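Appendix B. Chain record.
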Amino acid sequence: MSMTLPALTDARLTLEGRVATLTLDRHDVRNALTGTALVDDIVTTTEWVNASDAVSVLVITGAGSAFSAGGNVKDMAGRGGDFAGDVAEVAARYRRGIQRMPLALQGVEVPIIAAVNGPAIGAGFDLANMADLRIASRAAKFGETFLNLGIIPGDGGAWFLQRLIGYQRAFELTLSGRVIGAEQAKAYGIVLEVCDPETLMARVAEMASQMAAQPPKATRLTKRLMKMGRRMELPDFLDLCATFQGMCHNEPEHLEAVNAMLEKMDRK
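Structure tokens predicted for this chain:
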């Protein structure tokens, strides 16, 4: 069981009660994902989570007023940093840079909850959408704003958003580039719940603790099934379910959970 937290550069990581919390900590640039080490930190964290039996839930949030402002617009204006060079250079930098983030988050074996504390714009919005659940502060704002800058969602955002809320609504938000508030995001199905800013982390901790209290191996298998069910035909999916279920029935945590349930029933 790996309990040693990985060293991060621009983010903070804590582990408490099987819940890992990753806090993006570059509030000086509104937690921009380019021009910082945040993508590296996110990828490092996902690898550690998957390798650690001590983690059952990953929470991602931002320090300061923003969740994440996405790309660094000043770098874009100067064609510097991640945005310098010809077509091949920019493409390679995307593949080796920010595009590692969606691949890493898509492969996380435990539930991911985005605690959206403030604006989640551009790639920051996409980062939130790469989580399984989004709980937002009333101070949060959301925008797929790439087209406003004459660029496309280069981090896979168009793939995630339409799977979250359907093609038509995702198309409208992406093509308009408009920014919406937390309540509108909830109405669209982007956000599960909206909280007052001062209660956001307590609510996320409550939800994370409930998930972290479930049998850990079955929790990871269940998340894998939920992901795989979106791309498999039913007969193949049922074969997979049968195999995973066979694994679960042979795990000690299953017997412990069944015995705990029987004890509870006997007490009634």
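Further analysis of this model is presented in Appendix C.
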